[in-house]
């Protein structure tokens, strides 16, 4: 009898100690994933995020000028073509600014040379200057190699040109290479040769068959006109632009609210802006360069 009671007590205790867990409450465990694997995965994700963050924060280093303060230009250097071929340096370059007088240019970079083989008013080592007839101030700055540079050297440094124009192609006596900074650009850089097939001049030029102005961005070109000429656009009330199919340009009449001056702007599809005064006469013009979807 005593033995039976002991056996019964063991069965009861065993039954009470067993507490089964429902399948729904039992946590799933992936036997293949360890704590070490999880740590490695997190570390890789953190490394990837850090790398992406560093790439986003990286900026192209600013290019050092390819010219010095005496008008010498390192034409075959990467700094020159990476900068010059992507900008419209028609009016200003090498420290010479549009509107400077001849004396101001000489004070800046020294006296001009006696070279008269280049079609420019004055030569300062590798820079040539043309002055306006009206004001006798800087109107255009060109690059002209003081030392001999061949077309082969230019192509080796700059890369293949957009166009390689022979004298027969353009009805001229010299060969010209053109470099267009982007497919949508309204300007290009010309590399003009001499009679010996060496480089004579480098300068930007307009693409008058480009179409970069439309009804959505025409006022952006007007704004750029005011910025370049350091004028206060807030004093002007503009009428809505109207495109003339017959004439091929936008017309934008305006009134200066400060003193009542009236006039209009003509904006050509390729980026030229003409200011027409209240007498209907052409008063001033400005070309607005454009490339890579933005005004330069």
The protein's oligomeric status is: single chain
Radius of gyration: 36 Å
**Sheet bearing the most strands, described?**
6 strands, antiparallel
Provide the succession of SSEs: HHHHEEEHEHEEEHEEEEEEEE
Summarize, please:
This protein is 26% helix and 24% strand.
How would you describe the overall organization of this protein?
- This protein is α+β, with helices and mostly antiparallel strands and 296 residues long.
- Among the domains are: 129 residues, no CATH class; 78 residues.
- It is built from seven helices and 15 strands.
- Strands 8, 9, 10, 11, 12 and 13 form a six-stranded antiparallel sheet that branches.
- A hairpin with a 2-residue loop joins β1 and β2.
- The longest helix is centred in the N-terminal third of the chain and has 23 residues.
- The chain is globular, with a radius of gyration of 36 Å.
- It starts with a helix and ends with a strand.
- The N terminus is likely disordered.
Features:
six-stranded antiparallel beta sheet; four-stranded antiparallel beta sheet; alpha+beta; disordered N terminus; 296 residues; 15 strands; 7 helices
How are the elements arranged and paired?
Elements: H1 2-17, H2 35-57, H3 78-84, H4 102-109, E1 122-124, E2 127-131, E3 138-143, H5 151-158, E4 163-165, H6 167-170, E5 176-179, E6 187-193, E7 199-206, H7 218-228, E8 236-238, E9 242-244, E10 249-256, E11 262-267, E12 272-276, E13 282-287, E14 290-291, E15 294-295
Antiparallel strand pairs: 1-2, 2-3, 4-5, 5-6, 6-7, 8-10, 9-10, 10-11, 11-12, 12-13, 14-15
């Amino acid at each position: 009898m005593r033995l039976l009671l002991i056996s019964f007590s063991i069965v009861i205790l065993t039954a009470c100690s067993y507490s089964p867990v429902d399948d729904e409450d039992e946590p799933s465990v992936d036997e293949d994933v360890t704590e070490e694997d999880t740590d490695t995965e997190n570390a890789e994700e953190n490394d990837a995020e850090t790398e992406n963050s560093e790439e986003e924060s990286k900026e192209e280093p600013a290019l050092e000028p390819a010219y010095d303060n005496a008008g010498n230009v390192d034409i075959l250097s990467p700094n020159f073509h990476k900068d010059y071929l992507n900008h419209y340096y028609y009016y200003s370059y090498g420290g010479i600014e549009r509107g400077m007088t001849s004396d101001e240019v000489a004070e800046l970079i020294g006296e001009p040379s006696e070279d008269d083989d280049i079609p420019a008013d004055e030569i300062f080592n590798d820079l040539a200057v043309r002055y306006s007839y009206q004001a006798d101030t800087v109107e255009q700055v060109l690059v002209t190699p003081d030392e001999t540079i061949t077309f082969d050297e230019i192509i080796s440094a700059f890369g293949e040109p957009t166009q390689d124009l022979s004298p027969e192609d353009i009805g001229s006596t010299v060969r010209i290479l053109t470099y267009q900074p982007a497919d949508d650009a309204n300007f290009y850089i010309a590399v003009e040769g001499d009679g010996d097939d060496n480089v004579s001049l480098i300068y930007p030029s307009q693409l008058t068959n480009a179409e970069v102005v439309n009804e959505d961005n025409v006022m952006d070109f007007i704004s750029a006109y005011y910025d370049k000429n350091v004028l206060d656009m807030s004093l002007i009330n503009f009428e809505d632009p109207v495109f003339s199919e017959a004439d091929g340009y936008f017309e934008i009449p305006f009134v200066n609210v400060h003193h009542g001056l009236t006039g209009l702007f003509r904006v050509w599809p390729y980026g030229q802006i003409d200011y027409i005064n209240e007498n209907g006469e052409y008063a001033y013009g400005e070309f607005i360069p454009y490339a890579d979807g933005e005004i330069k």
